[in-house]
DNA sequence: CGTGTTTGACCGGCGC
DNA sequence: GCGCCGGTCAAACACG
């Protein structure tokens, strides 16, 4: 649970030095300027007198910045933990009151799983029960009525907007997916593809991928469930990877938006065709502290909604970090 | 030959 | 009860 601190640390570290979305060369940020020149100029000053003074000033600035980041990190972590507690309270509350008349999505899914357990869907039920999968007796699983487990496994639902290649719905997000179906839906002329996570055997995570109605160059991926394995190490082709000519993907944190209806959406840009930064919050100019604050809040809200997103995000961030080095 | 994709069939939920 | 629709299965197929 508290590995979130590590994640947040890496996140905050990324926000400044990498200058995401900050590819405008003429930029003159106030406090970020110290960030960008700090590491560049540390080794380039040769005046012996001024050098120590400059270095000390530099050090002070960096220390101050470090403190600020630490404070921000603490605040965000607290907020994250608070939201997480709130979420857990909500889920446990929803799972406990038995006579709740309004059937939730979880209940529907549960009913569906239970109904399908008398035949070929046994493995599905076992998988939905989280972790130790097929060895368990399906009957036992059914009797146990894994409300909380199923609810927990199903709540995380994240819409990921990604730019897909020409006419394929294959979105490379680091995990390994096996396609098991495709359907044309009513509200969207483009077909919807169904994937299961095959990165680890028995991983219950599914995703649906469909092109956006309004923008056919984007696909919307809906993730369901939590991975029962460690996140994949970010695909080596993430930033370097035009090696095999396939498309690759880089997470661009700026795409974080928050749907009013619930699911968080993040946008993934593909390095190959053109790094499009869709859904960047346009109300805020980038480079400003407010922008980063807003982004941090959005990241926090997104992370509280989907642990698998946490994993993916951490993987992507780490990958870029390694790649930079 | 093993693995992953395609695609038509099937199933259950839901509205009428 | 019937038809529609979303989700899933599994045989056929493609590919290395
Ligand atoms: Zn998985």
TrEMBL record:
Statement: the UniProt record of this protein carries the keyword Signal: no
GO cellular component, one term: nucleus
Protein name according to UniProt: WRKY domain-containing protein
PANTHER family registered for this protein in UniProt: WRKY TRANSCRIPTION FACTOR 36-RELATED, WRKY TRANSCRIPTION FACTOR 40-RELATED
InterPro entries on file: WRKY_dom, WRKY_dom_sf, WRKY_plant
Domain WRKY: 166-232
GO BP: any one term: regulation of defense response
Principal subcellular localization: nucleus
Gene3D superfamilies (UniProt xref): WRKY domain
UniProt xrefs under Pfam families: WRKY
SMART domains named in the record: WRKY
Keyword terms of this UniProt record: DNA-binding, Nucleus, Transcription, Transcription regulation
Source organism, top-level taxon: Eukaryota
Alphabetized GO MF terms: DNA-binding transcription factor activity; sequence-specific DNA binding
